[in-house]
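INFO worker-7 received task bundle
INFO bundle size: 2
INFO processing item 0
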Amino acid sequence: MERAFTFRYVRGVEFRPEDYGPEVARILNLAGGGTRPMPLVRCGCLACDASDALKDADVSDAAVRAGLYVHCGCWDQAHELADSVQNPDGFFWHGIVHRPEPDAANASYWFRMTGRHPIFPKLAEVAAKAGYGSGTQWDPFAFIEYCEEARRRPGSAEEKLGEQVQLVEWQLLFDYCARGRNG
């Protein structure tokens, strides 16, 4: 079930679907515009219309497609694509896919494979501004544990913050992948 609120601007991240071209913007707009909270627990595909549109979309980069499927909540498709991307971006998406299963050990494995990703400094900065005590460097393993604890308290401030930080993480990684890793 999709929640009624979104996070368009999260203290330091402004996400605009139109920045990624009309086809990606159309898909994102069918799935909450890239601003839908990212659930801490895997559930069924959250944006079936967007997922259907993505099947026929001209999006050739597997990391970008994986990110779109992650945002749609279509975990199986996201997992398959992330598994095909054998670089830190694919490993990062893979970790994101396993975190809400919940499969902390598998998510940790993929974050170890990711190493220090270029979005980590901005993620740490924005997460701290949102209220997540990430310290000066992003620690994906601490965030896995945070999500594990927060999901045990549905409706809590911790759950909402976890969803918000996951959204920022998604926005930053999607932007990084969609802009050719140089934007």
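INFO item 0 finished
INFO processing item 1
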Amino acid sequence: MNLGFQEAIDLSKKLANYCKSIKEIDVAVFPASPYIFQVAKEASKTIIKVGAQNMHHEPKGAFTGEISTKMVLTCGGSMVIIGHSERRHIFNENNEFIRDKVQSAIDNGLMPVLCIGEKLEDRDNGRTSEILDYQLSGSLKDIDLSPLDKIILAYEPVWAIGTGKNATPEQAQETQAFIRNWMITKFGKGIGDVRILYGGSVKPENAHSLLIQEDIDGALIGGASLSIDSFGKIIDIALEIAKEEK
């Protein structure tokens, strides 16, 4: 919940200009819902995809303050973040509610970015795998993920969001590998290519060490995305790594 309208548009214009010749990587932005239409307009001639920060699973109805998949799509959005830690822990969204959102997004042609992650006390007590298993099992219950490009996962340790703390690259890699193996065990070997992002105080200073990890396919960026200087540097780092891997 950041930026006024003009600030958001100015940032999207700068980002669109920054990305105008980029083809090797994917870039997506998730503005506040009142800005989706205009941001999507600014991004329309670039690689940048636009999505919503949240949505309701019902197509319409008496859900004051919510937005539907149709609203996102008709404003130019193609993606949606679901189950962000703040939705889970501040707004008390449970796995069943999040699962319904994931299903609705898939059914209606939005790419869900499903977020999972543990609190500090869970990690300190050795419960990271248990918590992630619980969140994945509940949030993906009875969902058909074939074809396999229907979803993106984002691991965001709650203790590293907006705190200045960060998982070490080794900690992040270990957890991301667990998530990938969980997906393969649950859905079959073919889903091993599912894109898994890392989120949690990603910034230019640590982006390279995180993005070079084998099971980190990208970053879910918070505060650093509010400035073209910091966001642009992260894009440059991702672009450099993508070119090296080719």
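INFO item 1 finished
INFO post-check item 1: The domain at 5-245 is CATH 3.20.20.70 (TIM Barrel).
INFO post-check item 1: Residues 132 and 214 are 19 Å apart (CA to CA).
INFO worker-7 idle
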